[in-house]
Amino acid sequence: MEKKPPRKTPRSQNKEVVGSSGGVKRPHSDSSIPSLEKQQPKRPRNTQVQTGSYKEAVIGIKIAIIHRRHPDVKLDQTQVDMIQAKLLTAVDANPLGETPPQFLNARFAQGIFWITCANESSKAWLMRTISGLGELWEGAELNVVDSKDIPKRPRMLVRIPDNSEATTVMTRLRIQNPELNTTDWIVMSRKVTKKELTLALSIETDSFKALTRSNFKAFWRMGSYLSDPEG
User: Fold this and answer.
1) Which domains are present in the chain?
2) For the segment 38-90, what is each residue's pLDDT rounded down to a tens digit?
3) What's the whole-model pTM score?
């Protein structure tokens, strides 16, 4: 009888093979599915933060149009409609060939007219245009500020031995205390007793700094009296 050659035992794909050095070699996979490592996209060598122009194109530059005495004097819907009408007229008058103003959105909320500019050139255009609108209504005094710069006016309680009208008090304070810009102060309330007058005031920042330096004292006629900052 002829001897049949011994059958070759197929090597298992999952069987570990001992190498010549005695170490254990992992078998190569015949699967066509790439491993997880191969599926991960390669990271670029130089990763950079998005540029300012890209950020502007996505979220824009948020600008607030407010009254100069905000938050004590706030814009109303009628006034905002007037401002917007003037701005749209200015947009239509922009010469062809020049960089046009571009905006992402506009809305009115809580006395503020918010406009989101698409880029820095549109922000500059908006600020120039607002400053050139003039007095749209009696007492119209507009400011254009970045959203982070919305002003918060300090408030004060002033007590003096007088029962004069508030305008008279403001004039006398201004004369004896030149660093206090009382023409820009707003009287929130007035209380009169036999001995003194108490005024709740909203004042501008420079006056508040001056009062801080003087320990909240102001000259009044023949004396010096204390004022109290409200929290």
Assistant:
1) 52-149 (3.30.70), 155-229 (3.30.70)
2) 334 444 444 444 444 555 556 899 999 999 888 888 999 999 999 999 999 99
3) 0.53
